[in-house]
Amino acid sequence: MGKVVERPKLTWYQQLYLPQIVQGLGMTWRQMFKPNITVQYPEERQEFFDDYRGAPGLVKDQEGREKCVSCQLCEFICPPKAIVIVPGEIGDPENENVEKGPDEFYIDMLRCIYCGYCEEVCPEEAIFMTGVYELNGATRAELVHDKQKLYEIGGTRIDSIQKWKGK
Question: pTM here?
Answer without folding.
Answer: 0.71
